């Protein structure tokens, strides 16, 4: 099985697969209807993920106007594997445009959102409950306290965040630690070879404060599969392609070369690269079919050699800007002279613990 190795999520004892199943396309309603799947179409995708050994499933109340949760709940019950699945859902988006308290991250909506998600999912608890998006105004103290109350009530097992500034995540975690409240163990963020900005703040913050990062869109909306290339011209055949830069297009060439050398697809290399980057606990993959999902899970069946990884790293690197230029090795040599070698910990200080 491709996903039968599990790792701890953040600073917790929760074991999760290195690839999580994204279910944003489960359902045919709401904002995501254009590429949604019926329950009959979603079933083989879900079963394939379980058959591969996966246990980490991600949804949100906003996906397909709640249908994703409803379908996923039925599929989990049908498989009779509720205890095995690490079920994740998220809240923030409005469920009633006329009600100012029916969206955002305030306590009133947070409680309302969880209760509605539990009904749709057909369960009395979720394993991981995430704030979906920073609303810019709700105090972190209120969010952390409410999540802690939910853990104490037995309605969620763990708490986390998604798509928030690094400073906000750090503040939330610090509040939890200082007040002996439920800590955040997960931070969900966009991350791929063409979108590496989280490495500046979010990744080191997560490593230091115990938030395992789950990366969404590791294929950058399908761009890294190469499917948007028009006859190899390097130009867009998709209307959304205007968001991609010349730098992004140039990255496809070394990605394709690495894939050819390894005998795998560009998509598999891109997923493997994300899932094995520092600070990344899991990469979220979606699929339009069981066959496509099988190709994605096979991304863990090989290793990217150091020289080929260096090729990808160099081609996709994001140059530091502003104050971050001061944190490079070159600048730091002015703090500690080159003839004095200073590091955090020696190699092997914290040996890797595995039971296989």
UniProtKB/TrEMBL annotation:
Record's keyword annotation contains Oxidoreductase: yes
Keywords: Oxidoreductase
GO CC, any one term: cytosol
Gene3D superfamilies linked: NADP-dependent oxidoreductase domain
Pfam families membership: Aldo_ket_red
CDD domains: AKR_AKR9A_9B
Name of the protein described by the UniProt record: Aldo/keto reductase
């Amino acid at each position: 099985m491709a996903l039968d190795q599990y790792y701890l999520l953040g600073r917790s004892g929760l074991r999760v697969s290195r690839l999580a199943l994204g279910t944003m396309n489960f359902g045919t309603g709401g904002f995501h209807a254009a590429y949604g799947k019926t329950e009959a179409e979603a079933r083989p995708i879900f079963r394939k993920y379980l058959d591969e050994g996966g246990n980490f499933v991600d949804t949100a109340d906003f996906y397909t106007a709640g249908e994703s949760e409803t379908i996923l709940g039925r599929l989990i019950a049908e498989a009779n594997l509720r205890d095995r699945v690490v079920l994740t859902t998220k809240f923030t988006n409005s469920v009633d445009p006329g009600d100012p308290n029916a969206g955002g991250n305030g306590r009133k909506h947070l409680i309302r959102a969880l209760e509605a998600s539990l009904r749709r999912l057909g369960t009395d608890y979720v394993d991981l409950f995430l704030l979906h998006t920073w609303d810019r105004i709700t105090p972190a103290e209120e969010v952390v306290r409410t999540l802690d109350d939910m853990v104490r009530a037995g309605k969620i097992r763990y708490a986390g965040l998604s798509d928030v500034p690094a400073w906000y995540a750090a503040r939330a975690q610090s509040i939890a630690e200082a007040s002996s409240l439920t800590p955040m163990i997960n931070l969900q963020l966009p991350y791929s070879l063409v979108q590496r900005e989280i490495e500046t703040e979010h990744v080191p913050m997560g490593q230091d404060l115990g938030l395992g990062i789950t990366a969404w869109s590791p294929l950058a909306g399908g761009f890294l599969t190469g499917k948007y290339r028009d006859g190899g011209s390097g130009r867009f055949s998709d209307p959304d392609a205007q968001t991609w830069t010349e730098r992004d297009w140039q990255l496809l060439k070394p990605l394709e070369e690495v894939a050819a050398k390894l005998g795998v697809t560009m998509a598999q290399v891109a997923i493997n690269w994300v899932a094995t980057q520092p600070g990344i606990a899991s990469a979220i993959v979606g699929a339009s079919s069981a066959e496509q999902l099988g190709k994605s899970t096979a991304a863990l069946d090989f290793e990217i050699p150091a020289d080929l990884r260096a090729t990808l790293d160099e081609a996709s690197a994001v140059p530091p800007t502003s104050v971050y230029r001061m944190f490079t090795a070159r600048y730091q040599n002015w703090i500690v002279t080159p003839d004095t070698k200073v590091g955090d910990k020696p190699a092997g200080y914290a040996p890797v613990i595995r039971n296989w």
